[in-house]
């Protein structure tokens, strides 16, 4: 008994710490699989000992909300769902009743309130008792109606999500993998809880409704019919199917097949009784409602052998551990590698070379290590960078341990740094691949940005590179010469300032007349005054331009280039905001149209709101969602020809 209580205390500490880091900082120290496994162990021990400790996560759902957003208390606590991985338990749960089986969406829960047909408020789940007010951000979601035909009070719950397809498109804007967003769930949480709603608007957030909480009128005593009612009001509701005890297994299998190509992040299913009155009569426990249960996929795990740990060095110097194991087939694909994300996760798994490990695909998509059967715990954390062999140090950030290379001139960091600098959306130097950069760095021909502009000194060496020749050399030199004239925003993006992608670089440069001297001396307050730029981004910017070593490299290359302002003709579209939809006729593509608008100091956003001046759609009479919203909000809809007229002399 004493040993079991001791183990319970250990589990409670581990699980509570993992939850705190996840909910407060969107940081993971273990996989979902490992968390569920430890949680299930704690539940079993509590049953065996008939003891529940006061700080157990099985009865406590609260955590402190760390943000400067306004807080409000929910009228009734928002409880978690009890979970199962057993189909037969779903059948027992529903008994002889009718139920609805739907996706358990993997995002951020939002409470929406409508009054007199208007969106009145949007509040996050928070800790279940206290939520954060994010109304202005909700108004920037892609699919939320701002007005509805139902003119009385209506309260709904939905899941804010970022679709995999949108997530992929956003990451394609980055030339360096180090800058990419890591997963849709954390990106969605950060996007919804922004202090600046313009950032939310760019993140393609959708809200899928999964429950009608209350309405002033008497509604059907059927959750399915309530969903039908909400769809008629213009809401997107969670995909759901009517089930009974006999049909549940087949419907679960259908969902299991769909998730392989489903575009919305999901981590399981939800089964609930269709009868609303019966559901309400069941009440709840201290933590769970009794009318619904979550089904978590019984992950397909395969046993394999850990062969090695690869240590991958990023442009920022972060050294990430990647597990390499004997190839296994999972969910129809061959898998041999899985990121371990940080030292804390790696040490938590107690990994050792040749250990027998279990691997799976989280949500049937991302390879992860589920567990370690051997636990030899003999992986040595490198004392030196695997690439440059300089000292590596462990940093602890928000209780998570990371490994960093301390060498400012690390070859791996330099390759990634120069790879970004030469990339298409940066200096656009064609022909300099990572392989060529590696060779140039190894031969000590390139150590910084400026060296790229002096490669003509080394013609004889370069044309003798393996697989290279005079033609390849000439192409590179020609491309380098063309890159000497560059837009300021592209140059700023090329420098790899943390948190500064191309769109933010354009926003900042345009806000200060594309004047390098001005933008290099900006303060945090200057930057925070720009819509879409917050204190975190501003701090990264200021720290970058105040770093003497970095600025020596930047100032050296400035002597080799010239900033061109030819695309910034006038400010004829200053303070005008546009949304683009439909086919493009006069321009090659939407990117070209965006550049055109920005060259006249205009701004392009992705979502219709009252702050938008024009919706550009060549089909003005379209009944699309954006056209409909534009008309509701009084936003003028124009064609491309109208846009061109706006900038005519």
Summary?
The protein is an alpha+beta fold and 649 residues long. Helix 1 runs antiparallel to helix 2 (32-49) and helix 12 packs across helix 13. The mean pLDDT is 85.
Question: How would you describe what is shown here?
Answer:
- With 649 residues, the chain is of the alpha+beta class.
- The chain folds into six domains: 2-49, Helix Hairpins, CATH 1.10.287.610; 71-295, DNA ligase/mRNA capping enzyme (D-amino Acid Aminotransferase, Chain A, domain 1, 2-Layer Sandwich); 302-405, OB fold (Dihydrolipoamide Acetyltransferase, E2P) (Beta Barrel), CATH 2.40.50.140; 411-483, Orthogonal Bundle (DNA polymerase, domain 1), CATH 1.10.150.20; 488-563, 5' to 3' exonuclease, C-terminal subdomain (DNA polymerase, domain 1), CATH 1.10.150.20; 577-646, Rossmann fold (3-Layer(aba) Sandwich).
- The protein has 25 helices and 24 strands.
- The radius of gyration is 28 Å and the shape is globular.
- The termini are far apart.
Question: Notable features of this structure?
Answer:
D-amino Acid Aminotransferase, Chain A, domain 1; OB fold (Dihydrolipoamide Acetyltransferase, E2P); five-stranded mixed beta sheet; seven-stranded antiparallel beta sheet; 25 helices; alpha+beta; Helix Hairpins; 649 residues; single chain
Determine the CATH superfamily of the largest domain: DNA ligase/mRNA capping enzyme
What is the architecture of the largest domain at the second tier of CATH? 2-Layer Sandwich
How much is the radius of gyration in Å?
A: 28 Å
Number of domains: 6
Strand content: 15-25%
Question: In DSSP terms, counting alpha (H) and pi (I) runs of 4 or more, how many helices?
Answer: 25
Number of strands: 24
Classification by helices and strands? alpha+beta
CATH class category label of the largest domain: Alpha Beta
Poorly predicted runs of 5 or more residues: none
């Amino acid at each position: 008994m004493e040993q079991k209580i001791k183990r319970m205390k250990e589990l409670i500490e581990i699980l509570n710490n993992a939850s705190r880091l996840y909910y407060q900082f969107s940081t993971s120290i273990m996989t979902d699989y490992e968390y569920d496994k430890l949680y299930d162990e704690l539940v079993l021990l509590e049953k065996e000992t008939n003891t529940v400790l006061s700080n157990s996560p099985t009865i406590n759902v609260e955590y402190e909300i760390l943000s400067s957003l306004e807080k409000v208390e929910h009228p009734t606590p928002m409880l978690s769902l009890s979970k199962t991985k057993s189909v037969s338990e779903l059948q027992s749960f529903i008994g002889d009743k009718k139920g609805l089986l739907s996706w358990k969406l993997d995002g951020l829960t939002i409470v929406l309130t409508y009054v007199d047909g208007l969106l009145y408020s949007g509040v996050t789940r928070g800790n279940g008792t206290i939520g954060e007010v994010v109304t202005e951000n909700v108004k920037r979601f892609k699919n939320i109606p701002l007005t509805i035909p139902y003119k009385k009070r209506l309260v709904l719950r939905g899941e804010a999500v970022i679709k995999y397809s949108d997530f992929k498109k956003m990451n394609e804007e980055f030339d360096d993998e180090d800058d990419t967003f890591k997963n849709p769930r954390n990106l969605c949480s950060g996007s919804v809880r922004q202090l600046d709603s313009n950032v939310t608007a760019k993140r393609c957030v959708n809200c899928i409704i999964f429950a009608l909480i209350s309405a002033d009128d008497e509604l059907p005593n059927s959750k399915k019919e309530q969903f039908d009612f909400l769809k008629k009001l213009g809401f997107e509701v969670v995909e759901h199917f009517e089930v009974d005890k006999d049909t549940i297994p087949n419907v679960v299998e259908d969902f299991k097949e769909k998730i392989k190509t489903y575009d919305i992040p999901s981590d399981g299913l939800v089964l609930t009784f269709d009868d609303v009155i019966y559901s309400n009569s069941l009440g709840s426990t201290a933590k769970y409602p009794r009318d619904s249960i979550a089904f978590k996929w019984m992950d397909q795990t395969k046993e394999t052998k850990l062969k090695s740990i690869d240590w991958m060095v990023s442009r920022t110097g972060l050294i990430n551990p990647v597990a390499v194991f004997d190839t296994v087939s999972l969910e129809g694909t061959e898998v041999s590698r899985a990121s371990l994300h940080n030292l804390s996760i790696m040490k938590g798994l107690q990994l050792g070379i040749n250990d027998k490990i279990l691997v799976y695909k989280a949500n049937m998509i991302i390879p992860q290590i589920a567990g370690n059967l051997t636990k030899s715990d003999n992986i040595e954390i490198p004392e030196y960078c695997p690439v440059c062999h300089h000292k590596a140090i462990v940093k602890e950030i928000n209780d998570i341990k990371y490994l960093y290379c301390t060498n400012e001139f690390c070859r791996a960091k330099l390759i990634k740094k120069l790879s970004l600098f030469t990339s298409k959306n940066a200096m656009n130097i064609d022909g300099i691949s990572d392989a060529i950069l590696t060779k140039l760095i190894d031969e000590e021909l390139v150590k910084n940005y400026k060296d790229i502009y002096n490669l003509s000194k080394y013609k004889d060496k370069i044309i003798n590179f393996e697989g290279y020749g005079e033609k390849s050399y000439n192409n590179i030199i020609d491309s380098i010469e063309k890159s000497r004239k560059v837009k300021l925003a592209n140059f700023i993006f090329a420098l790899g300032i943390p948190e500064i992608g191309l769109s933010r670089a354009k926003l900042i440069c345009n806000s200060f007349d594309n004047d390098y001297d001005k933008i290099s001396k900006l303060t945090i307050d200057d930057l925070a005054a720009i819509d879409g730029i917050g204190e975190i981004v501003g701090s990264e910017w200021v720290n970058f331009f105040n770093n003497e070593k970095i600025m020596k490299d930047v100032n050296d290359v400035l002597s080799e280039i010239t900033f061109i302002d030819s695309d910034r003709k006038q400010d004829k579209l200053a303070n005008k905001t546009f949304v683009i939809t439909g086919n493009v006729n006069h321009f090659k593509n939407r990117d070209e149209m965006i550049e055109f608008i920005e060259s006249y100091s205009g701004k392009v956003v992705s979502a219709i709101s009252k702050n938008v001046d024009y919706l550009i759609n060549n089909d003005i009479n379209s009944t699309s969602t954006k056209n409909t919203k534009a008309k509701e909000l009084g936003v003028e809809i124009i064609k491309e020809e109208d846009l061109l007229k706006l900038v005519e002399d």
